């Protein structure tokens, strides 16, 4: 990530001020500085956009032909470079795509099973479900799955679909 100019500048500043900090602290400070720089930019630029618009009411803001809270053109360009880097090297990385595929399978399996057998839901959610394949059941199942942590969803999937898992 150090090849991204926005990151490189922040990293250089961190390393200059704290040359011997542990890597986890270095990363935390890097992220803090990046967020701070972007926040400062958006606030400064937005103040100028609002001042240029000179609104009298909220309707003036709503009726503006452009966003009034936005990065400066220079920061937008830097953020775009960072975003492209992240998409190319992280979000679309084969490991991330593989894990995303597995997560989709887990969610799909849980949703399909709970839709067809809502009595397997915990009591609170089972009461909301009105029977297999109904809109109310779909809402209950979606809300139940949506509230799961990753670890809970994997454990639930294992419990429901693994032949070797003990039924608890």
UniProtKB/TrEMBL annotation:
GO terms for molecular function: hydrolase activity. The keyword Hydrolase applies. Residues 70-158 form the Phosphohydrolase-associated domain. The keyword tRNA-binding does not apply. It holds the Pfam family HD_assoc. Keywords: Hydrolase. This is Phosphohydrolase-associated domain-containing protein. It comes from Iodidimonas gelatinilytica.
């Amino acid at each position: 990530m150090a090849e991204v100019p926005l990151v490189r500048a922040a990293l250089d500043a961190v390393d200059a001020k704290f040359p011997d900090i542990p890597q986890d602290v270095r990363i935390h400070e890097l992220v803090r500085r990046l967020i701070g720089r972007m926040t400062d930019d958006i606030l400064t630029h937005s103040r100028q956009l609002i001042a240029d618009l000179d609104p009298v009411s909220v309707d003036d803001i709503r009726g503006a032909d452009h966003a009034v809270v936005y990065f400066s053109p220079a920061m937008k360009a830097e953020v775009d470079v960072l975003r492209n880097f992240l998409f190319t090297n992280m979000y679309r990385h084969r490991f991330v795509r593989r894990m995303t595929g597995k997560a989709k399978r887990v969610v799909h399996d849980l949703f399909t099973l709970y839709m067809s057998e809502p009595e397997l839901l915990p009591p609170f959610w089972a009461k909301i479900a009105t029977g297999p394949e109904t809109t109310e059941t779909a809402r209950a199942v979606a809300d139940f799955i949506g509230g799961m942590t990753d670890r809970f969803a994997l454990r639930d999937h294992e419990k429901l679909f693994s032949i070797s898992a003990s039924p608890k």
